[in-house]
Design a protein that fits this description.
With 84 residues, the protein is of the alpha+beta class. Helices cover 37% and strands 42% of the residues. A hairpin with a 4-residue loop joins strand 3 and strand 4.
Length: 84
């Protein structure tokens, strides 16, 4: 995938998140067809919702890296999705 195509995907994901009141940092991998979303919130209303929304729009969840674990329902993580 070219850099231009990945920028377009990044813009698409940003728009998708904004339209669905999810707020996070979106960035793409320069070498792979992977888009990352760094997001903070509870596991059900934010993280699970993000995974379901991305899946509905043709992205496959391939991993999650927890950045900050508060030992509660709320945490910060980077979710990685492959562009299908």
């Amino acid at each position: 995938m070219t850099n231009l195509e990945m920028i377009s995907i990044e813009e698409k994901v940003n728009k998708l998140l904004n339209e669905n009141n999810l707020y996070g940092e979106v960035y793409c991998d320069a070498e792979l067809p992977v888009v990352n979303v760094e997001i903070d919130g509870d596991w059900k209303h934010v993280h699970l919702r993000l995974k379901n929304l991305m899946s509905e729009h043709g992205f496959s969840h391939i991993g999650e890296k927890v950045i900050e674990d508060t030992e509660s329902d709320d945490y910060e993580a980077v979710h990685s999705f492959i562009v299908v």
